[in-house]
Specification:
Elements: E1 2-5, H1 24-30, E2 36-39, E3 42-45, E4 60-64, E5 70-73, E6 75-77, E7 82-83, E8 88-94, E9 113-114, E10 125-127, E11 130-131, E12 133-134, E13 159-164, E14 168-174, E15 185-188, E16 204-207, E17 210-212, E18 238-240, E19 243-247, E20 250-253, H2 273-286, E21 298-300, E22 303-307, E23 310-315, E24 322-324, E25 327-331, E26 338-339, E27 343-348, E28 354-356, E29 359-361, E30 367-370, E31 376-379, E32 382-384, E33 391-394, E34 400-403, E35 406-407, E36 411-416, E37 420-423, E38 426-427, E39 430-433, E40 436-444, E41 451-457, E42 463-465, E43 468-470, E44 480-483, E45 494-496, E46 500-503, E47 506-507, E48 511-515, H3 538-548, E49 562-564, E50 567-569, E51 582-584, E52 589-593, E53 599-604, E54 670-675
Parallel strand pairs: 1-2, 2-4, 3-5, 4-16, 5-17, 12-13, 16-18, 17-19, 18-21, 19-22, 20-23, 21-24, 22-25, 23-27, 24-28, 25-29, 27-30, 28-31, 29-32, 30-33, 31-34, 32-35, 33-36, 34-37, 35-38, 36-39, 37-42, 38-43, 42-49, 43-50, 50-51
Antiparallel strand pairs: 6-15, 7-8, 8-14, 9-26, 10-11, 10-15, 13-14, 39-48, 40-41, 44-48, 45-46, 46-47, 52-53, 53-54
Length: about 675
């Protein structure tokens, strides 16, 4: 059956093309497996809450008709604004407009949400589709000051404040020079745009919509992870070709349900975060967290921007998924609140998940893989202009595979894990590296959710083969200590005698180290031909501890690393374990961006400079198995991966392949443009 929805329709109609429904929600109540819901152009102010799911062979498809923009919004218009003097205006709405919860009464809250200058609410006020900044009091509205932490500080002078009463909610807002009576002013009233209230509604496709302006709650891995759109603990959704923007927190959630635990930290529970996370995992395994029931989603070709927590988030429910071809930018650009779940893509337990061909820029950080990145494959993505780092892997045992990516921000990689393989990437910034001995996290049987064991992170077990490292221009190549949540550019460091160094208002005694461009971070790590810890004599152990420090004492021995076929240009620092690496003092390669940041330009003036690394064509089976999981770097179906094509799909030769993402052997120069 094909149902049609139109702004000229009627929910009492038959839902045909000639007699369409008025709302998508009406179609969502009757659509069953195999049905298609065609939505014609217009603005649909509703929460689409599907009643039924499809099957693997007969999906339920919701798609735009293609006759204009089909918008699903969580906002309603507010028109009756009164000027209170200067640029401050007021309006009042009846609370009946909030059908699920009043987001201007509900505080933003949840595990790992850090304290800011004040506690923000879930709601937002929008001027012509763009959200204003919340203020902590009415007094802050008359002469607003720019918020110095905002990516676009001048925008932060447009502010609002609200007070929710028993029957009405009153708003104060400074719209700058705009007259709200002549503009489109809206407030968020719904938590979701497309979200099933029931779990287990499988095989639904959402295609070609504009989805915007809802108010989901903060989404940590130990709570119900809300998003403007998401499958809500199900299997096999496809979310594609959508424009998704202006979420208070998350755009797309692939994550956790309510039953497996919900925000036990803020409720006075004494259990630590690691323990609570472990409990969530085992609760899920007692339920239906397995490949047959959960995950396996496809998120592709969407444009996602201006969300304050994440573009895509997921714990457990995002396993076995594909996230590809998306453009994600301006994630966490306001920064009036902060937390440990902020990124363009933030995933826990990304088992066998494929993250490929995405462009992620202008975010706080781009991709953050936390816990259980096993079988995860990150390939052919472009990262730049991200404030903290392009890629963060935290307390994961691997194997995770990273190939043919462009890491172009000031800090490329924050590594508090092990078991990664990096092949044919371009790194143009710095690295943070540190062991993590205080947290024990699980690893799994290959391509399965079943837990195979637990361990902490002595570090190492990483492979770097055929990568290209570019100097970042910072002549100070010293190793810089930094706290866990510090980022680049480094803000002024504060001192707290009781708690140590703090950043973003978060006490943290956990010191990390920022290394210069290249692989010198691994100089003190053992290599593959070293003895294992128990094979050294007492004298040999003592000698290495004195020479290398904390990586070597028995009980916290770093796992050997592999480096081969890498090239270091323009002053990037090579690894001591790779004496035959290609080192070129010339820059050789230039990276530039268009004024609108919609294109990246890569120019390799002299391709011969990249010759001499002498590495053969690589396949993933040559990378071996990770130490703890004892799992190979392979496709989700267990087949081998051969790195025989470059970033653009150009065939690589059998021998003497070019380090980095671009194959240039046999050409004089490469001058290419990557559209974002």
């Amino acid at each position: 059956m094909e149902y049609h929805v139109s702004k000229t329709g009627n929910d009492a109609a038959l839902g045909t093309k000639e007699a369409p429904f008025l709302t998508i929600s009406r179609a969502a109540q009757v659509a069953v497996a195999g049905d298609v819901v065609v939505v014609h152009a217009g603005v649909y102010r509703e929460w689409v809450n599907p009643l039924n799911g499809g099957t693997e062979d007969a999906r339920i498809v919701y798609q735009s008709a293609g006759d204009g923009e089909a918008v699903i919004t969580g906002a309603e218009q507010v028109r009756d604004w009164k000027n209170e003097g200067g640029q401050v205006w007021t309006a009042e709405v009846d609370n009946s407009i909030f059908t699920h919860r009043n987001p201007f009464k509900e505080d933003l809250c949840g595990d790992w949400l850090f304290k800011g200058p004040f506690v923000p609410h879930l709601g937002d006020v929008f001027l012509n589709g763009k959200s204003l900044y919340e203020a902590e009091s009415v007094e802050k509205l008359q002469n607003p000051e720019a918020w110095e932490l905002a990516k676009y500080a001048e925008d932060s002078k447009l502010v609002w404040y609200a007070e929710a009463g028993e029957k009405t909610t009153k708003f104060w807002a400074n719209f700058g020079e705009a007259d709200p009576r002549k503009e489109n002013v809206e407030i968020s009233v719904r938590p979701f745009c497309f979200w099933p209230e029931k779990t287990g509604l499988n095989y639904i496709t959402v295609k070609g919509f504009t989805i915007c302006q809802a108010s989901p709650q903060w989404a940590p891995p130990t709570a119900l992870q809300e998003g403007m759109i998401g499958p809500h603990w199900s299997k096999g959704w496809i979310i594609e070709d959508n424009l998704i923007y202006e979420s208070k927190c998350v755009a797309i959630s692939l994550g956790k349900d309510l039953d497996n635990g919900h925000n036990r930290g803020p409720k006075g529970k004494s259990k630590g975060g690691t323990q609570r996370e472990q409990e969530v995992i085992f609760h899920a395994l007692q339920g239906n967290w397995n490949k047959e029931s959960i995950g396996g989603h496809i998120v592709r070709n969407n444009i996602i921007h201006d969300c304050e927590q994440a573009g895509v988030v997921g714990h457990l429910g995002g396993a076995f998924s594909i996230i590809e071809g998306n453009t994600i930018y301006n994630i966490h650009h306001k920064r009036i609140f902060h937390g440990a779940e902020v990124a363009g893509i933030k995933l826990h337990a990304s088992l066998d998940t494929q993250i490929r061909n995405n462009k992620i820029y202008g975010c706080y950080r781009a991709v953050w893989l936390d816990w259980q990145a096993q079988g995860t494959h990150i390939s052919r993505n472009v990262f730049f202009d991200n404030l903290s780092e392009d890629f963060f892997v935290e307390v994961c045992h691997g194997p995770y595979l990273v190939d043919h990516n462009l890491f172009l921000s000031k800090m490329n990689f924050r590594n508090l894990a092990q078991g990664g393989a990096f092949v044919h990437n371009l790194f143009a910034g710095r690295m943070v590296l540190r062991e993590e001995l205080s947290r024990w996290t699980p690893y799994h049987f290959a391509h399965d959710t079943a837990v195979a064991g637990y361990n902490n992170f002595t570090g190492g077990d990483d492979r770097y083969v055929n990568n290209l490292f570019l100097f970042d221009g910072d002549e100070d190549k010293s190793v810089k200590p930094m706290t866990f949540f510090e980022h680049l550019p480094l803000p002024p460091r504060k001192e707290n005698k009781e708690k140590g160094q703090i950043m973003d208002g978060v006490p943290d005694d956990s010191v990390c180290y920022l290394y210069p461009s290249g692989l010198s971070a691994y100089d003190k790590y053992p290599v593959g031909n070293e003895k294992m810890p128990w094979e050294f004599t007492e004298e040999e152990r003592k000698e290495r501890e004195e020479k290398y420090g904390s990586l070597y004492p028995l009980g916290r021995w770093a796992i050997p690393v592999q480096t081969k076929g890498n090239a270091y240009f323009g002053g990037a620092v090579g690894c001591a374990h790779e004496p035959d690496a290609k080192v070129c003092e010339q820059a050789g390669i230039t990276i530039a961006f268009s004024e609108k940041k919609d294109r990246v330009f890569v120019c390799i003036k002299d391709a011969e400079l990249l010759g001499g690394a002498g590495s053969e064509l690589l396949s993933a089976d040559a990378l071996g198995e990770t130490y703890h999981a004892e799992m190979a770097y392979e496709n989700p179906d267990g087949t081998n991966i051969v790195f025989d094509t470059d970033f653009f799909g150009k065939k690589r030769p059998a021998g003497n392949v070019t380090p980095g993402p671009f194959e240039v052997m046999g050409v004089e120069a490469l001058d290419c443009e990557i559209e974002l």
